[in-house]
Amino acid sequence: MRDLTIALENRPGALAEVGEALQRGGVSVEGGGAFVVNNQGVAHFLVQDGAAARRALESAGIRVLEEREVLVQRLIQSEPGQLGKISRRIAQAGVNIEALYSDHEQQLILVVDDIAAAKPVSEAWMREREQTAKQRSYEVHVEWTGSRGEGTRSYRNYGREHTILSSGKPPIPGSSDPAFRGDATRYNPEELLVASLSACHMLWYLHLCAVNRVTVVGYHDEGRGLLREDAGGSGEFVRVLLRPRVRIAPGMDRKRAIELHEEAHRCCFIAKSVNFPVEIIPEVFET
């Protein structure tokens, strides 16, 4: 990844011209920011192809001050002090951090004055994080209860009923979707997948609201998953849509309450583990 430092005129439309030039050059911006200091504008944009971005900008008469390789880190968001720790280590290596921002994947991007000296520090940090990263395992037992005396001798002669068990917890009655000869009164795997996405998003959202001083007093979600069947009878999820309705206490920051849904989505363990889009359309209103 490459960081471009771009000189901007302090006038309306200057930033638009940068975006338009990059669009013409087929360059996507992966992160960055723009600022005005002492009446002079400057932007830092993160791109995959620095040479293509430079050509696109310079062909539009936009001055590129510098193009540099960057350090890319993913900090542990739930652990306070991460930024201070890694910044201190880089400083102890005699390296100055000249710009800092996040990319679209919520990774920390560091632009430094000595990439060769900073790289070993960054790599050591990542190795330590991998060694100390917490790993958790989750065990459930699924027991088929739908045998009707003949087992699976034919497609029509066995039940899809099963029970999902985890030590010390109430059992969950499961079956297949009624479209696949299942019991409509029991949960099917497709519903449980959508429920997992909905619950994971909710729990992250409530946590983020708590640490950002947004008081939530009510939460209700209507999750819906779209599964596409293929000609052979198999299929796959192509989309899950969550519609959380959130009630906040009077006087809370409604704009911030909406923004935290984006952060919750980026943090959700389940959403990060699936290969289909999970869309969030929230509603936030005061109680």
DSSP helix count? Answer: 6
Q: What is the ordering of alpha helices and beta strands? A: EHEEHEEHEEHEEEHEEEEHEE
CATH topology of the largest domain: GMP Synthetase, Chain A, domain 3
**CATH architecture classification name of the largest domain:** 2-Layer Sandwich
For the sheet with most strands, the description reads: 4 strands, antiparallel
* Fourth-level CATH superfamily of the largest domain: K homology (KH) domain
Strand order of the largest sheet: 2-3-1-4
Count of beta strands? 16
Unreliable stretches covering 5 or more consecutive residues: none
Kindly estimate the percentage of residues that lie in beta strands according to DSSP: 25-35%
Q: What's the domain count?
A: 4
Report on this structure.
The chain contains six helices and 16 strands. It is of the alpha+beta class and about 290 residues long. Strands 2-3-1-4 form a four-stranded antiparallel β-sheet, covered by helices on one side. It has a three-stranded antiparallel β-sheet with strand order 5-7-6, covered by helices on one side. Strands 8-9-10 form a three-stranded antiparallel β-sheet, with no helix packed on it. It is elongated and about 80 Å long.
